[in-house]
Amino acid sequence: MTSELDVVVRGSALPADRVLTQMQLLVQLLGLAEDSTVRKDRRAVDRTSWGFGELGLGSVHARLVPLERAQDTTQDQLNRVPLSVVSGFEHAQRSSDLPSGWGEDLATAGRRVAADLGDDPAHGMTLTLIEEGRPVRSVTITGTAAKNLKRAVDDKRTSTGSVIGTLASINTRRNQAGLWTDLDDRRVSVAIGPVPLADFAENLGLRVLVAGALTRNAVGHVLSIWPDEITRWPRGRRRLTDSAGVARGYLADEGPVEHLERVGGWAT
Question: What pTM was estimated for this model as a whole?
Fold first, then answer.
């Protein structure tokens, strides 16, 4: 099975340069979604190439199909890429927090795709997931998605903390590493420089805890980290929350409220 993406751009007297730019941005978004699926940061030439399976006139109608799959992308991973794009835009149409699995890079690329679309479906873009030649899921994107994605990455605050995840990529040209989080499987950018490159290299592909200054969006998703340290964090290492319930009987016959009142704590 090969998943494809059907694209319809609506509007009157559509400028050719705008439509071509939107198609190019959409292909770039597919590439970033593929990187996220395989947990790697790659150059465009190292990703799966996409081409037109169909191309119609009127309201612009095209179908994007994989031409040559990237060597380090499996067919199953590639089939999840169009779904990630469609489901991400479904979320962006109705909410200003990050879509599931989308990091700041995907959200920024998605905003660019939707930036020149109108605010009503008649001047939007419809993406349809095609599996085995049949449409299975569809979303109509408007300028609302661009506004929501802009809010998701532009409204930021910084705090001190840590994130656990897999250090899956290093990009020395951009001086950043890609950390895919355990919590929600999003890509978080980690700056290279505050911590030596050698520390990143020796932990590449491993589960780590990265501590430092966390940049979050308005709903608390971590977008990037200015790290103080990187600590290897083995798979068997437990979280504090994993210990919930292990001390059954500690309160004897007391409830939580009675126990807090007895020891001088507080309860509401």
Answer: 0.73
